[in-house]
Amino acid sequence: MTALSAYTGDASLRSVQFRREREETWRELEDLLKRIHDKGLSGLSADELATLPHLYRATLSSLSVARAISLDRALVEYLESLVARSYVVVYGSRERARTRIWEFLRWRFPAAVRAGRWHVVLSLLFTLAGAVAAFEMVSADSDTYYMFVDPSLAQGRDPSAPTSELRGQLYDEHDFNHGLTHFASALFNNNSRVGILAFALGFLAGVPTLILLLQNGLMLGAFAALYASRGLSWDLWGWLLPHGVTELLAVILCGGAGFLLAHAIVFPGSEPRVDALRRRGRQAAEIVLGSVVMLFIAGLIEGIFRQTVTSIEARYAVASTTALFWLWYFGWCGRARARLEGAAPWR
């Protein structure tokens, strides 16, 4: 029996039967809409939010049946109103979510980074200090390489490896593709871990953040010294930078976010420490959220270009393009909107 054939007989009887079978759903939907009107979506539990689209579709089905079997006009108008209000909530909230994501990427994220630029610069300086120190030490004594690079991460890329093998691993030569995949994945996982921890441990006065950034820089400098000693610097950076520009920048931004937390705790200024931490914490969270997106982008670049681009010139072209893009993005993107919006909420 179809939904339409179930309602036969006198029109008034059909209307009563129709209401009796479906009115509970309408009332439940109407109650949720009223609560949303009074308190917003935050007034609903997770289960109620999940139920909302199902109630909307059930009520829309009721409206279709009511029109098809010519129920009384008052009932049809009631259902039309209920469906229209529900549509705005169900699909309007999705549009608002997309709008919020777009607004975050378009101006809030770069504005947060610009506002915390000195903390980001500090993060960059500690990373560079570690890299330069390790480069000088490994260049002077190759045995110090093992102080900075874990063997599980190096995977045979150490001073004992022949130059031909080190070069082959950069260009997927000599059946090194499988090992290179693991190495790239290990580097990505290491950088992601360092970035998240550098932020999360910032509340400990920034000391763990500083150590993590130094360690990451030391590892990078040791690798650079190893390949430089074999005349492979140009090749190493050509392999690393296409995805590394984005990946390493994301780690540095996370470090800057960690220093923001440390700043609020150690130097809260005239406001209570809790208030300073809350304000700086919101800014730091936006930086880290954007950095996670950057790590995702870096993973895509690494996965695509490592497999398809072997020309060193093309690799540097990709690296230069990404570097220029991030320079524009963090330097200028969203400046006009930020001025129109006034002070950001974390200020």
List the defining traits of the structure above:
347 residues; mainly alpha; 13 helices; 0% strand; elongated
SSE order and pairing:
Layout: H1 11-39, H2 46-68, H3 73-115, H4 117-140, H5 145-148, H6 151-154, H7 163-170, H8 177-200, H9 207-229, H10 233-266, H11 273-308, H12 312-331, H13 335-341
Helix pairs in contact: 1-2, 1-3, 2-3, 3-11, 4-9, 4-10, 8-9, 8-10, 8-11, 9-10, 10-11, 10-12
Molecular structure report:
The chain contains 13 helices and no strands. The chain has about 350 residues and is mainly alpha-helical. It folds into 2 domains: about 10-105; about 115-340, no CATH class. Helix 8 runs antiparallel to helix 11 (about 275-310). The protein is elongated and about 95 Å long. The mean pLDDT is about 85.
Concise description?
With 347 residues, the chain is mostly helical. It is 80% helix and 0% strand.
Helix content: over 70%
Order of helical and strand elements: HHHHHHHHHHHHH
Query: How many strands in all?
Result: 0
Beta-strand percentage? Answer: under 5%
Task: Tell the overall outline.
Answer: elongated
* Major β-sheet profile: none
Distance between the termini: 63 Å
Mean pLDDT: 86
